[in-house]
Specification:
Blueprint lengths: L3 E7 L8 H14 L16 E3 L8 E9 L7 H9 L6 E8 L7 E11 L5 H12 L5 E6 L2 E6 L4 E9 L2 E9 L8 H10 L7 E11 L7
Parallel strand pairs: 3-10
Antiparallel strand pairs: 1-3, 1-4, 2-3, 5-9, 5-10, 6-7, 8-9
């Protein structure tokens, strides 16, 4: 069967499932749903499935995509129906469809975030956050395959906005998903490194939608 794509969400308590455990969970769900995955050949066969952008532990998403192949012909609607009954709490199958689009075409990621402050006022933090992310460059230290290096994350931020509510600051942004990849955690990390006085005591993020280079929804 041709390659199929699953759109799914990972929210609630499921955010604490690691990427490898998520892959195992999804593989078992296919098996319980009697959707026979195609396996690779060789001495160590593994299911022919792949997630486009592994999600960090603790982050939520309503726009995850997984590519897979089945041994048997089955309508996407039937696959979706079966998977919905076999996935654990916090992981939901949203859509199954055929797609010829390559994952490399995926470029932008729409996210939302929450910055929490225990003692500092969110209203006081708001203008300072806006000023910080309005800079022409935001150079931070980050881990690379070669060790610790410097990286300017500003070009990977297409747009970003903040609003205050109670003791939290809500953030909405569009960031680069690939080439370069910007982990949303680096937004909070940049504050901790460069302006700790406005860094949040706690931050969490959620993926909302994925887009191609032209800001068309990627499916």
């Amino acid at each position: 069967m041709d390659k199929l794509r699953l759109l799914f969400s990972k929210t609630g308590r499921a955010v604490y499932i690691s990427h490898l455990d998520l892959m195992r969970t999804l593989t078992r769900a296919f098996k319980r749903a009697d959707c026979n995955l195609k396996y690779s050949e060789g001495f160590n066969p593994h299911p022919n499935i792949s997630i486009a952008m592994p999600l960090s532990v603790g982050a939520e998403s309503v726009c995850e995509i997984l590519d897979f192949k089945l041994l048997d012909d089955m309508e996407p609607e039937e696959i979706l129906k079966r998977l919905k009954t076999q996935l654990p709490e916090g992981i939901s199958a949203l859509e199954v469809y055929q797609s010829d689009r390559k994952v490399r075409e995926l470029k932008w990621l729409k996210i939302e975030g929450v910055f929490e402050y225990d003692e500092r006022s969110s209203e006081e933090m708001l203008p300072k956050l806006c000023e910080f992310f309005a800079k022409d460059s935001i150079v931070i230290q980050k881990k690379t395959k070669r060790g610790i290096g410097e990286s300017d994350i500003k070009p990977a931020i297409k747009d970003i906005a903040f609003s205050a509510c109670d003791n939290i600051v809500c953030m909405n942004a569009t960031i680069s998903a690939q080439e370069p990849t910007l982990n949303p955690e680096l937004l909070a990390d940049a504050l901790r490194q460069l302006m700790p006085e406005i860094a949040p005591d706690f931050a969490k993020f959620k993926r909302l939608e994925i887009f191609d280079e032209n800001m068309s929804v990627f499916r």
